[in-house]
Design brief:
Strand content: 15-25%
Order of helices and strands: HEHEEHHEHEEHEHEHHHHHEHEEHE
Bound molecules: magnesium ion
Shape: globular
Helix content: 25-40%
CATH architecture of the largest domain: 2-Layer Sandwich
Number of strands: 12
Number of helices: 14
Strand order of the largest sheet: 5-6-1-7-8
CATH topology of the largest domain: Alpha-Beta Plaits
Amino acid sequence: MVCSSFGDSISTMTDRKKIIHIDMDAFYASVEQLDNPELAGKPVIVGGRPDSRGVVAACSYEARRFGIRSAMPCAHAFKRCPEAIFVRPRMARYKEISDQVMKIFLRYTDMVEPMSLDEAYLDVTENIQKQPSATLLAREICKTIYDETGLTASAGVSCTKFVAKIASDLNKPNGVSVIEPDRVEDFLAALPIGKFHGIGKVTERKMLNLNIKTGADLRRCSRIELAEYFGKNGNFFYDIVRGRDPRPVRTSRVRKSIGSERTLKEDTVDLSEISQLLEALVKKISAVMQDRDISGKTITLKVRYSDFTTITRSVSCKTEISSVPEILACLPDLLNKTEAGTRPIRLVGVSASNLVPHTQRKPRQLLLPF
Ligand SMILES: [Mg+2]
């Protein structure tokens, strides 16, 4: 582990947060190797079968040496490494270990925001150990995870979520990276634009066209210029490149979205087939929402075309919705904004976000006919 101390220098500055981003290393694949020692040291791929249309959900570091990555089609992964061992995911087991890891976090701080089964942000500005050094805490947390689960994790330490997250990736696996507050600006200046939070493929292309390649280039743009090019996101970009990331670690355990997606058996342009599948997905997410007593304001349709280009189309409703007919009613407009029916599709998904628990929901105005 490479570490430097990050503690006292900022403990006097009350406006600075100490954030740790922890990310388990090759989580699903590592769990498989842990539970089945025969897989240790071998290229392991968790996901679909090699002859299926599924994708790689996770792969061991041994498999990564062959150029295999998450989200790659299993058939491609098989071509790259025919001797790889393909394993079906066991989500219940991953969830079990994830719960164990989340409980470890809570021994250090109650400001924990899980992002997925294998990833969480911890705000340790104030922590139970009263340890002023976030670096030492990060090291200790990773060691505890290893001692108690047998799995390694990597950690990033900084003063914002965004920089902590990037840092956790710098020294993987089993490493702690620290970007001290006084290094944040230089670090961001050197960062390629595509790595910035909130800059996806489309925005990246737009920025490259404007000759914005790094954080330093982005810094040269004024707030007004950025607002002009990127709308309200421009403001966020202006701040984040200066190390200002206003997003707090949110401890609420309410999920941010509820969704479901499925790969079709064969690519299709058949709209009725797509609609049927969407209806099944809507029934599924509506059942989860009613079960959790939650409604959503935004419905998002995801479409992946046969060439793996993936797009999403969203609509925000006036009121929170959760029933099958309400969600279904959003879909025709969203589908119209895709090339469904003309361009072959391999996957569709639906999700609801902007979730509100029913207990917090404002009473709905009943629409009574006169
Ligand atoms: Mg991970």
